[in-house]
User: Fold these one by one.
Assistant:
Number 1:
Amino acid sequence: MNEFEKVGVSFVKDLRRIVGERAVIYEDREALEAYSSDESGGVYYSHLPEVVVKPENAKQISEIVKLAGDARVPITPRGAGSGLAGGAVPIYGGVVISFERMNKILEIDEENLVAVSEPGVVTNDLCKKVAERNLYYAGYPMSVETSFIGGNVATNAGGSKVIKYGNTVHHILGVEAVLPSGETVRFGGKRRKDSSGYDFVRLLAGSEGTLALFTKIFVNLIPLPGKTVDLLVPFKSTEDAVRNVAVAIKEGGVLPTAVEFIDKLSVKLGEKYNNVVLPFSDTAEAYLIVQFEGKSREELEKIYVNAGKALISHGAMNVFVADNRTNSDKIWKVRRNWLEGIKAFDPYVPTGDVVVPTSEIPKIIDFIKILSKESGVKIPVAGHAADGNLHPAPMKPEDMNPAAWKDYSEEILDKIALKAAELGGAVSGEHGIGFIKKRVLAETKPAQVSIMRSLKRVFDPNGILNPGKLFDL
Amino acid sequence: MNEFEKVGVSFVKDLRRIVGERAVIYEDREALEAYSSDESGGVYYSHLPEVVVKPENAKQISEIVKLAGDARVPITPRGAGSGLAGGAVPIYGGVVISFERMNKILEIDEENLVAVSEPGVVTNDLCKKVAERNLYYAGYPMSVETSFIGGNVATNAGGSKVIKYGNTVHHILGVEAVLPSGETVRFGGKRRKDSSGYDFVRLLAGSEGTLALFTKIFVNLIPLPGKTVDLLVPFKSTEDAVRNVAVAIKEGGVLPTAVEFIDKLSVKLGEKYNNVVLPFSDTAEAYLIVQFEGKSREELEKIYVNAGKALISHGAMNVFVADNRTNSDKIWKVRRNWLEGIKAFDPYVPTGDVVVPTSEIPKIIDFIKILSKESGVKIPVAGHAADGNLHPAPMKPEDMNPAAWKDYSEEILDKIALKAAELGGAVSGEHGIGFIKKRVLAETKPAQVSIMRSLKRVFDPNGILNPGKLFDL
């Protein structure tokens, strides 16, 4: 498999006929380079597409797919390029289909509590638009300000609110998609239940563009939650912080919206990058950020007083309450800009993304600490502790050359991913597999990957859709 | 396809070796008959299995599956037999695998908020057990008192609480399953997020035993909701009732847990059957039952006062508030025992299960009314109005003979199902397809069924697992 043809002049001519002259990038190296990598680190993980095409609708995508299928040219779909696993990198060249022009919110249906969106809509824009109508899209990922809704569905993105709301797939009622055959098929839609055959919406979510290309997305909406409160909770040790995740989940009396973990090194770098100072940052080894939602101030107060007392009695150094936007933003800034903060000091930093059952967080954190010591590599960690999803970010030792670091950092991240799987977790909780994590996926889910391959062949017998992602055929 | 071998004596001997003498039923017609039908109506839709086997664990199931695969004997998995679409009916004979002895709750993991259950646990028992620890399984179907959790997952069962909590699949974190190859594979588990390849948990949920047999189920738990209140709301016309579904969803300020619809004919039959009288039952043409959850009495009061006022101002005849168990049970009795109530007066009644976008409820109700008039058949309707899932139940005209009624009632239900799909819904919202709805599924989802067939072949190349369900190969 994976023997593809090169893009030729007549192929490009056909693409231009389909989408128009200006929606095709060809033979312009600088312009093509913008489509050669994602946030996983262009320095290591980039590959130039032969041609980029920017369709506007399902019909054009269908024609492109048929054209590429006939010509045996590989297709790599691309959202905002904010992925962290290389899913949008065209590792076999060929065509990149960029969804950037399919950026319309087609409908906000208040009666059915559904929004219909094109895949290239920035998720944050969607959130804002529905908020204007007092509605809420709860599949909110952390990268909401840049990522596209289509990419969120393709990776089944997570974020901080999964403990309460579940990940992206929980909020997708349907998709319209172009299959590798060129056929456009609607799966699901505005109905809220469906027990009529295999659930392809949920199969396609998280399939990272290897089975189909989304052209419309039906998003579930709920009433906008009332009010939120954020607690910033410093701890003397990471052990204390990690032990208190369960306390934060249980003692407020309601499920928190988020329980985020961030360690001292991350905070220190974040403070510099964001030009802020967090309380206790000299003495605290780790923090939790705990968020609750409630219908009223009074209700929230009851919740955070309970949770706060419990956290203090279980070893928190203090509990800082932010119940307004300004204070809340200060708390979240360091966590939200975590990766940018580290990258400002080490452009070579890769990000891991592993998930474990929440009870196993202490073990995976211990493992990372020991690995850091043994390897002589600093590994700041932050993550969505409420759902066991952690992001270790090994930093290049100053004296190591970038080429050697690529291999060494991959080795470190692979070890952490394998350990997470061993603890009952998985090698990715929210970023996806792309091509960077193929090895560890194959190692931890051999039986499952074998079924994935067979499934892939059913959908895409020529293997032209995002080849080399998730697994090799 | 579907050319199967008959069960022979040596096959039965092998089964007895695997599960023990007493866990096999063979050549005992009366005992076999108990496994020949489900709640879809044994009088029409039954077929005798050749042999019934009651395994105790995954290893036995794996051996049975391998044995049946080698012998080309079809396997029909069976939970509680409470299905309404014939999914558990062994229409090609062969082996029925009954999960009745796999009835242990293996673990309630309070730290990870996960229960691990065998498939043959009665869902209601699971709910009670976790409630003892102040936890809640939110994938609660209406048939909770009889159905098995394994069957709930197999049909992706719905219920009344989908508007707030989603259907079964939203609450399943993982399954262990025996594949048609005999291999036992774990998909998912105690981790709460996973973006590592195709999501087989969600593909297997709702696949009605055609792809794999569940041997363990990992169920998501949440803190037990505080308090509930139920509103019984009579309306002068079905139009008024249906129009007020949106009012009930929006005007309380929080999502209701349930908005149920029940029409006059259903109420009348239900009153007789349950020996109760509902207020306004002589003058009301339809009712909504609206349920809210809240942390405190005060919060709930605010919610139901708002919702109640809005409902009255939109045409409700009155709003009866039940905020204690006794009153609440009275309200729900008629709705919960709806089908039993009708069956007491017409043993030939079949139940439909269609879903539409909630905005289309008026149209599907109108359609049913007109169809009722045109066909001269009474069609009481109840359903989960909050998610557009309605159950029409055509009643046999007294002068029609049962054989003619089978065809006539199927024709009526098919028409309603096709109309639901045309309105943007689906031919089943929660009961599944079984074999009774194959026709309408094929008609409304031709492209999707074609992919389903291909997928089925990947998992089950010999087609021995629940053959003839969902589609014909």
Number 2:
Amino acid sequence: MLGLPPALADLIHQLTRLPGIGPKAAERLALALIKWEPAEVASLGQALNDSVARVTDCPTCGCLSQDGELCDVCASEGRDASVLCVVEDALDAVAVERGGTYNGRYHILGGALSPMKGVLPEDLRVAELLERIQADGVTEVIVATNASPDGEATALYLKQELVELTAPGGAALRLTRLARGLPSGAQLDYADPATLQSALEHRTEL
Amino acid sequence: MLGLPPALADLIHQLTRLPGIGPKAAERLALALIKWEPAEVASLGQALNDSVARVTDCPTCGCLSQDGELCDVCASEGRDASVLCVVEDALDAVAVERGGTYNGRYHILGGALSPMKGVLPEDLRVAELLERIQADGVTEVIVATNASPDGEATALYLKQELVELTAPGGAALRLTRLARGLPSGAQLDYADPATLQSALEHRTEL
């Protein structure tokens, strides 16, 4: 039987280890890659090595950063240090930034609580969060975990941990979460019942 | 605004040049890659370089091969050299091989005729095909181009070019094409009209 050349079969096999890449997709990627110019392949290899070597977590918030430095948000003078947006992953912070209106800082939990996957409170960056709240004089924590069961559980756990804390001056720390409702552009007849339920429950004045 | 670290942004940008990989998929791949062990990343880089350097086309049929050698099929003594299966791409030959019953050889056209994409007869390996038919004493050519408009046009063009040729001994060269009908496992109510039409037209005795 005609097989693929061993070098190519090895490349395809390695590509199937990437998330969302099955055997057919890996075949297509590998065949595209071997048609690239040698300089382009070298440049991809370089970018890969650079990323692995240089991308680090921001030592303060845990966002993606480079060479162990503070991330852009933590390094910026213009951002409001008294508001923290708590997200599961670094990409979630990038998504919130894309909105373009948030001016506080971030805190990356590094996941969500999940007894099924064995993620327990001590696996998340909660101790660091408590420390930052005290040290930075935080007045509001926006819990922006995913709207999934794990994300919900994590939000409830954080509420439990943070509800007793006070902001500077002795007022209670403000704890908020992202609004639930129809996503923008949504059509009612395609919305799932849970979303419609939330949208009804949290309806606002017209 | 919090951006991605430049090294990572560069990697993501390069990955989006792969077929079927959009910005979101590239982000997911890049983040997965930077979490790999350094040894795994090195091994992927090695496989990539190996493939680019070593994968070549079989000098006879155009299938994927390595280091300029004949492919497994052309190198095998056991395959019937008098039957040629003509396919568009090397992966099509791999697909036919997976069936496990074909015992002839292959000829890769290197694409299909497409005036829209600017692929003309002289861009396909048709001259090589004519040469092989004479040199190898071919008695049957199975045209296995895709069941797409371009594939159909290519099949008709090949018929025109090959219909006058003779097999060794003076008999006419046998020209065949893949059967059209229901794919195996198909449900009639999900089949498209053109497929059902073909299946009816080419019905066989029960």
Number 3:
Amino acid sequence: MNNGNDTLARLAEVIESRRGQAADKSYVARLFSKGNDAILKKVGEEATEVVMAAKDGDRRRIVGEVADLWFHTLVALAAYGLKPADVLAELERREGMSGLEEFALRKLRDREGDTP
Amino acid sequence: MNNGNDTLARLAEVIESRRGQAADKSYVARLFSKGNDAILKKVGEEATEVVMAAKDGDRRRIVGEVADLWFHTLVALAAYGLKPADVLAELERREGMSGLEEFALRKLRDREGDTP
Amino acid sequence: MNNGNDTLARLAEVIESRRGQAADKSYVARLFSKGNDAILKKVGEEATEVVMAAKDGDRRRIVGEVADLWFHTLVALAAYGLKPADVLAELERREGMSGLEEFALRKLRDREGDTP
Amino acid sequence: MNNGNDTLARLAEVIESRRGQAADKSYVARLFSKGNDAILKKVGEEATEVVMAAKDGDRRRIVGEVADLWFHTLVALAAYGLKPADVLAELERREGMSGLEEFALRKLRDREGDTP
């Protein structure tokens, strides 16, 4: 599935190749060496940075922060033995079901138990 | 499975097509109608859910929550006139620079002002 | 205005008194009935809302959102058998050590393993 | 309002006293010198750490992370000219209204526009 035009798959391969390396070899090797909590913490952190860049309406920073967020979710996926293709397949599956309307149904179900 | 870049681009088109619709037509139309803060709040929320699914080591839920997170970042990108291709280009640019080592450099610069 | 420690302790008691109630009796009873993940999700959500209110520089909303965040951390503490007094004691302990400088030392230690 | 038994008020005073100091004098002085985004980022970060500690069921770490979260919200309040008393007054106001049931009403109103 990794043809030359699949950015996330290629990044995931680069990330995977970093996993076995010594922690001082790369940022990703270091992140893996620090363990899953360090990786997950970055996911939370980068999400907050996306929100702040967006609140500033700074489109260049939004792109950079979403790139950071996606990148760290790729590291998180790798940490749990998953690939971006797994997520993309899930997104395609939902889209296929009815043009994203499954989101609505799922969220609706979530909410029904949610209203206080 | 299609190319990942294509999947994201197609999802972004579907999201874009929802933008003008009445709020009761779809989950995405409703989210747009509620405004940018509602969209950004979802980004924060879904990041927390990724973290919780990962802490449970529940791979199926991790896939679902990362799908939710990516999906809502696509909505956020659309809200600010951006496309997944902008983020993918940024990720490719960084990868091209030196196999992700730019991340290290950038983070290092961030950190130098960061240690208390 | 009463003493802050007392306010938090009283709120914690109210929260605790809701725990055994039927889910339809109060927002807190309902939150407990939904389980720890629902409570933790609120902590993440309210933190994002604090950030957004602050980015807007809307002081009234900042107060409201920090109130929401503290409130939900009190619910989270209760869910794990903890009290605000435990957190206040920890804050006092740190303050006592050297006017918060322990924060610096701890963060410094964290960071030393952190620079990529 | 700052009697000797009000931990948050006393911490807020210590934080305020750090504000004018040189950035190398303390962790808090440094955080102020880095600006509001750095402070808000910490709020998001510490919320994620509370969630992770709770998912581990590690009560000692929950206390420490909630202490970190409350502490950084105090810094955020200070950055926007607010005090913990403002938040405590808001919490008391809500409690006074009807034993927290205003939370329910407010959330209910939020949700009514929320179900997709």
Number 4:
Amino acid sequence: MRPQDIIRKKRDREQLLPAEINFFIDGVTHGQIADYQISALLMAIYLNGMNDAEQQCLTEAMLQSGSILDFSSIAKPKADKHSTGGVGDKTSLVIAPLVAACGVCVPMISGRGLGHTGGTLDKLESIPGYRVGLSATEFKDILEQVGYAMAGQTAELAPADKKMYALRDATATVEAIPLIVASIISKKGAAGLEAMVIDVKVGSGAFMREEERARALAQALVKTGNSCGIRTRALLTDMNQPLGSAVGNSIEVKECIEILRGEFDPGAQPVLDLSLELSANMLVLAHVDASLEQAHERLRQVLESGKALERFRQNVAAQGGDPRVCDDPSGILPLVSESHKVESRRPGYITAVETTEIGHAVAALGGGRVRIEDKIDASVGFMSEVKIGDQVTAGQTLGMVYSRDESRALEAVRRIQAAYQIGDEFKEDLPTLIKEVVNE
Amino acid sequence: MRPQDIIRKKRDREQLLPAEINFFIDGVTHGQIADYQISALLMAIYLNGMNDAEQQCLTEAMLQSGSILDFSSIAKPKADKHSTGGVGDKTSLVIAPLVAACGVCVPMISGRGLGHTGGTLDKLESIPGYRVGLSATEFKDILEQVGYAMAGQTAELAPADKKMYALRDATATVEAIPLIVASIISKKGAAGLEAMVIDVKVGSGAFMREEERARALAQALVKTGNSCGIRTRALLTDMNQPLGSAVGNSIEVKECIEILRGEFDPGAQPVLDLSLELSANMLVLAHVDASLEQAHERLRQVLESGKALERFRQNVAAQGGDPRVCDDPSGILPLVSESHKVESRRPGYITAVETTEIGHAVAALGGGRVRIEDKIDASVGFMSEVKIGDQVTAGQTLGMVYSRDESRALEAVRRIQAAYQIGDEFKEDLPTLIKEVVNE
């Protein structure tokens, strides 16, 4: 078998056989197939797609390419949430303690921010001392003690995915549904999950801007997840504006802690609403609750009783962070006091937000990565004060840019100001936060 | 500008701008763009194509990527022939001396055999002592003295093509028309040509099996060649059976010398016919003759007078080969006397030949390359004794396999026997050697 013959088949829209997919992924894993051959196949898959059989086989092969975490000694259901990525998308920090407080084991393998999207690991690292580079033993110990642990993908987990993901970013093949599905499910499967809820973002700040394509991705994720033995459900949720108010690292962690403390601004309400809905679905899929109603009631109790915040505190302490962040986020987190107003240039109604542009503006402040090797400045960010549908006057504050570097701040102000579309007419069809649940 | 953004545009079927194509080819030439990014773009071009403007720009950029040979001190028209490759396709060895004898300067940059096709350089090297690795000065000196010189692509000529060609072979992107066109024309343009005739092979032994696709390639070659300032014409010619009788290296050189000597078997007639037609077109494009009829008359004279053979002899001597090969090919060339009959399994008419399979069978004998680094055994080969349309009896010899290695020879006999289709009915529509001339 030769790599180029497999590439040729996909190029010519022929179905790849399991033996061919396994040969290729094995070659990727062991460095026997050249990067330029991998990327040629990635582009052929991007343009010609994969059918269900190929999709399942590719995912299984990538899942099996490395070690698989074994948490069978932990006598709890194992579940996780994954998001396809957006701007201000911080629900992992709320969901993990909520669901863990309900008796579910949450082994959360998260990612770094890249381009316009933030990353859970970057956000957590804004807590002084917090370590995400855990050994397998540490990860399991913290899971057992706290109920959840947060770490990055290691070299042992789904190494084929790690290799292919790096190439996809450099070859414009990130957005291919078969590759997204295989990447997500292979990593989750290798983390030993039984149940998984996937938050498929759709809109101007998501990889999928059109609902139809987002739905196709959600369906492929659910089908492939289930076929790999993980009970899987996907929610199509709105990403036509930043989720909540905060976009950045420290300021997003602060927003999450305020939610867990029950002391938050109204702008953060969608973060809580979405976190609760995703958590409730996790509890049902994990067979903790029989219905979403029961799950929501359980979640309300752990939130209001402070048990979720307590889990968060335990996790921060266990992962080396300063647990006082739970009591005094502003005192512990590296936040910038220097702020610059983003003003509305005209009166009217907010009709749309070019959300990706807000993500890029915050990344350019230092809050995100343009290249994978860039360092993050956890202190910078943007706090929005308006949402789609709001009426504004000329000169009204749309939000605040936080940065010590004035010239960068002014550039961010300019970009974010331009990202808000303001029209004369009230927008009738406001975006729905949760658009659809995809069960199969 | 980032390579992945250019890849993304082509992936999304957007037109690449000249600045983008130039940036990419410049990055390829100077090693600033990773192989995996080049191959992703190659696959995107394969699947999404290029329009005329992109095609011309790509070709120009590759042409300008290295040095351009300057033969302006040679006061003759410069012309060359290029073939898209086939089995037994040896016309370069006949055309170069013929056309040089007519007063045209022929700076022929040729290739090596790969896969089922042979290569002019490999064939020439079967002449003891013959060197194709000429310096630029040697190449020019021989051109001046003899009228033609034969060499391989150097690192200086169209280096972007050299890099991309190697990647195409490993990534199943060889057959893309925009890439074939840019590769051929950039090399020919860098060799300082004014006129060029391209032999576009079509049929079971060609890269293009369908006439429609071959015609599309021919049209793209002619259009792009002309737009790069080379007067270009393409001939669509038959490759549904080996050209002539000989398939191999020494035996193909022998067939060519016999043609130049005027002492050849009837099976070699198509080689002469095609060589004359391609040469006549070169003479017309080079403005040596006003019509094909005049050109044919001139060619007949240089052939019959022995002037073409004399040029061949001068070239062999100038490039270090043993010129006695012109008088006694069988005594000088490394030929194998051990032969194995390929017999017809049944009586009937030859209706079709799986020509690619014959090429592969000879390559497997050692006469060609499976991998680019393989060494050639110049002595082996296959001599066919029948052509499509011929009537055969059961057990009649279809041809002879030459090899000292009996087990390899028997394998070649088996493969070649299976490559000949023999039916009960005479095939009415025999393949036409020259199917079409494409002028624009």
